[in-house]
């Protein structure tokens, strides 16, 4: 189990670098972050949860851009991370950061009203 976690973290780190520095797709904003990456035990599939700041249209465009670049990202990870199989990548949208910001804003508004 520890090995899979270590590989997941390495893939996540490399994938972040690739997304931020090497993808030239205009649909991708600079405000994309990988929140979580889970790899199956056989290392065949990786589910990548990404957070995109922006409107719903920007989020769907960014997700489409990432999906279209999945082959390039997979090939680059295969070159950079020394593992037998490079996992097939599936991107999912993660709204947890936005939900956290919304809850924080509600708490702040409530505390101001109480004063």
From TrEMBL:
Going by the UniProt record, its keywords in alphabetical order are: Cytoplasm, Ribosome biogenesis
Q: Which GO terms describe its cellular component?
A: cytosol
Stored Gene3D superfamilies = 3.30.300.20
* InterPro entries on file: KH_dom-like_a/b, RbfA, RbfA_dom_sf, Ribosome-bd_factorA_CS
One GO term under biological process is: maturation of SSU-rRNA
Note whether Flavoprotein occurs among the keywords.
no
Q: What does the UniProt function comment say about this protein? A: One of several proteins that assist in the late maturation steps of the functional core of the 30S ribosomal subunit. Associates with free 30S ribosomal subunits (but not with 30S subunits that are part of 70S ribosomes or polysomes). Required for efficient processing of 16S rRNA. May interact with the 5'-terminal helix region of 16S rRNA.
Q: Which family does it belong to?
A: Belongs to the RbfA family.
The name on file for this protein is Ribosome-binding factor A
Q: Which organism is it from?
A: Acetivibrio mesophilus
Q: Taxonomy-wise, where does this protein's organism fall, top ranks first?
A: Bacteria, Bacillati, Bacillota, Clostridia, Eubacteriales
Write the gene name: rbfA
